[in-house]
TrEMBL record:
<dbReference type="GO" id="GO:0008776">
    <property type="term" value="F:acetate kinase activity"/>
</dbReference>
<keyword id="KW-0547">Nucleotide-binding</keyword>
<feature type="binding site">
    <location>
        <begin position="216"/>
        <end position="220"/>
    </location>
    <ligand>
        <name>ATP</name>
    </ligand>
</feature>
<dbReference type="GO" id="GO:0006085">
    <property type="term" value="P:acetyl-CoA biosynthetic process"/>
</dbReference>
<feature type="active site" description="Proton donor/acceptor">
    <location>
        <position position="156"/>
    </location>
</feature>
<feature type="binding site">
    <location>
        <position position="9"/>
    </location>
    <ligand>
        <name>Mg(2+)</name>
    </ligand>
</feature>
<dbReference type="InterPro" id="IPR004372">
    <property type="entry name" value="Ac/propionate_kinase"/>
</dbReference>
<keyword id="KW-0808">Transferase</keyword>
<dbReference type="GO" id="GO:0000287">
    <property type="term" value="F:magnesium ion binding"/>
</dbReference>
<comment type="similarity">
    <text>Belongs to the acetokinase family.</text>
</comment>
<dbReference type="InterPro" id="IPR000890">
    <property type="entry name" value="Aliphatic_acid_kin_short-chain"/>
</dbReference>
<feature type="binding site">
    <location>
        <position position="401"/>
    </location>
    <ligand>
        <name>Mg(2+)</name>
    </ligand>
</feature>
<feature type="binding site">
    <location>
        <position position="16"/>
    </location>
    <ligand>
        <name>ATP</name>
    </ligand>
</feature>
<protein>
    <recommendedName>
        <fullName>Probable acetate kinase</fullName>
        <ecNumber>2.7.2.1</ecNumber>
    </recommendedName>
</protein>
<keyword id="KW-0067">ATP-binding</keyword>
<dbReference type="InterPro" id="IPR023865">
    <property type="entry name" value="Aliphatic_acid_kinase_CS"/>
</dbReference>
<feature type="site" description="Transition state stabilizer">
    <location>
        <position position="249"/>
    </location>
</feature>
Length: 417
């Protein structure tokens, strides 16, 4: 029997809902997708696609929507009110809602959210204060308003539970580290799970046979070494701040830097709440750094196309340099046994210029870009952009976190039943 599954992805400035029909053990089929952008930088814009039909794209909203939960409620009401969308006529038609939860601590697989798991996730909020809280607000609303609907948390950190101890351990007092759960967790795992599976299929291999260097490049960016289908290492750490710089994130910096940056960094930020404790240091490095601090824009397309501006060129060069650091490190860590270098995420998919520059700089390792293939529009789930005769393949993968969340739920009898 098929069920309606919603995949909900509450980001820092957007909320996306994908609607799927799925039967147990089967891959889900997408029925609709809706998204509200601009929560932190109005105007609010709505996208809505029903099947293959685009109903609205970038429609400005006048409604008062100030939180991720407000955005979710608005989109849910729109889905129910759409007379031509027969899959959902009332809230009770939705059997399962799966939520992207950034930090899952030691959870190794998706969890049905009950009172215990909800409070456990609340306790993890301090490790990802800018992400977990918005997802949990939506969960709280659903538990109250739709008690018959099953809520499932799918974690960005779960794919990385396979990272070996010597890679995930920080060289600090281990008693304190274990007590406070201080170790590398890694994120973007739902995306990496989809990419590893999709790329292995493209290469004609089992997922367990594929070893890849994957770059998930967006406003939040990370890299991952996949060894025999499992995460071996990743650039993000205890929190999503570590690793590559992003739109407003610094990425990895000298830990002492922030204390020289300002004197009040240890104090709580004015934007902290009773339940959400954000230090001024976290706020500076997560929200006031990255490309925005260097260039004044968070749009990487603008940065890539403005090489005549010294600020833009610097931001582009920094990003390339940090990416290359991870490619080199992971190539050695995988002993050169790499099936492909894979670009993914909004920037990885759209910026042919970044792909070319990174691949050219890493050519000593055996990666080569094909100019004609690289300039083509990325339309397939996995697409070749490397030269045929190169030692290693270079690919682009259009990742799909929403689908992967619904798939992880539908193939697991305990979660689906």
């Amino acid at each position: 029997m098929s069920k309606i599954i919603l995949s909900v992805n509450a980001g820092s400035s957007s909320v996306k809902i994908s609607v799927y029909s799925a039967s147990q053990g089967q891959e889900p089929k997408e029925l609709a997708e809706t998204q509200i952008d601009g929560l932190t930088a109005p105007p609010l814009q709505l996208k809505y696609t029903r099947g293959s039909q685009s109903i609205c794209k970038g429609k400005n909203l006048e409604e008062k929507i100030s939180s991720q939960n407000d955005a979710f409620k608005y989109m849910l009401e729109q889905l129910i009110a759409d007379k031509e969308f027969e899959a959902i006529n009332r809230k009770e038609d939705i059997a399962i809602v799966c939520h992207r939860v950034v930090h899952g601590g030691d959870y190794e697989m998706p969890q049905v959210i009950n009172e215990d798991t909800y409070h456990h996730l609340e306790a993890l909020t301090d490790l990802a204060p800018l992400h977990n809280a918005s997802a949990l607000e939506i969960v709280k609303y659903l538990i109250k308003e739709m008690p018959e609907t099953k809520n499932v948390a799918v974690f960005d950190s779960e794919f990385h539970q396979s990272i070996p101890e010597h890679i995930r351990t920080y060289p600090i007092n281990q008693e304190i580290a274990k007590k406070n759960k201080l170790r590398k967790y890694g994120f973007h795992g739902i995306s990496y799970s989809f990419i590893a599976r999709s790329v292995a299929q493209f290469l004609g291999k089992k997922t367990s046979e594929a070893s890849l260097i994957i770059l998930h490049l967006g406003s939040g960016a990370s890299a991952c070494a996949v060894k025999n289908g499992k995460s071996w290492d990743t650039s993000m750490g205890l929190t999503p701040l570590a690793g590559l710089p992003g739109a407003t994130r610094s990425g990895s910096v000298d830990p002492s830097l922030v204390f020289h940056y300002a004197t009040n960094v240890g104090k709580l930020s004015p934007s902290s709440t009773e339940s959400l404790h954000i230090s001024r240091a976290e706020e500076i490095l997560n929200k006031e750094s990255g490309w925005k601090a260097l260039t004044g824009t968070t749009n990487f397309g603008t940065i890539a196309s403005s090489s005549s501006s010294p600020e833009m060129k610097l931001a582009f060069d920094i990003f390339v340099d940090r990416i290359l650091g991870y490619i080199g490190s992971y190539y050695v860590s995988l002993h050169g046994k790499v099936d492909a270098l894979v670009f993914a995420g909004g920037i990885g998919e759209k910026s042919d210029l970044l792909r070319k520059r990174v691949t050219d700089e890493a050519s000593c390792l055996g990666f080569e870009i094909d100019g004609e293939l690289n300039n083509r529009k990325i339309e397939d789930v996995v697409q070749e952009v490397g030269k045929k005769e190169a030692k290693h393949r270079t690919l682009v993968c259009q990742t799909n976190e929403q689908f992967e969340m619904a798939r992880l739920v539908s193939v697991n009898g305990k979660l689906f039943g």
